[in-house]
Design brief:
Elements (H helix, E strand, L loop, with lengths): L3 H9 L3 E6 L5 E5 L5 E4 L5 E3 L2 H26 L1
Antiparallel strand pairs: 1-2, 2-3, 3-4
């Protein structure tokens, strides 16, 4: 599908903002112009957000949330 925003991003680059924080180091990004979604990879680069990477990020977010809750319970007691 043709989009002026996508064409603009091809020439001038994406304008990314954080759409979701997975952990302290992994985030999902979305372009404000064309809507393309990206995520951090294990080696520190950005990659297009595929269904497989989205599933992996959801799993990591669950693990991170459990660990964070466990630390909060241990601190309270």
């Amino acid at each position: 599908m043709f989009s002026i925003g996508r064409l603009f991003c091809c020439y001038f680059g994406h304008r990314l903002h954080i759409s979701r924080r997975i952990t302290n180091h992994i985030k999902e990004y979305s372009c404000t112009r064309c809507g393309q979604e990206m995520t951090d990879t294990a080696n520190g680069f950005l990659a297009n957000l595929t269904p497989r990477l989205q599933e992996t990020n959801t799993f990591l977010a669950k693990i991170h949330e459990r660990r964070r809750n466990r630390k909060m319970i241990l601190k309270a007691s």
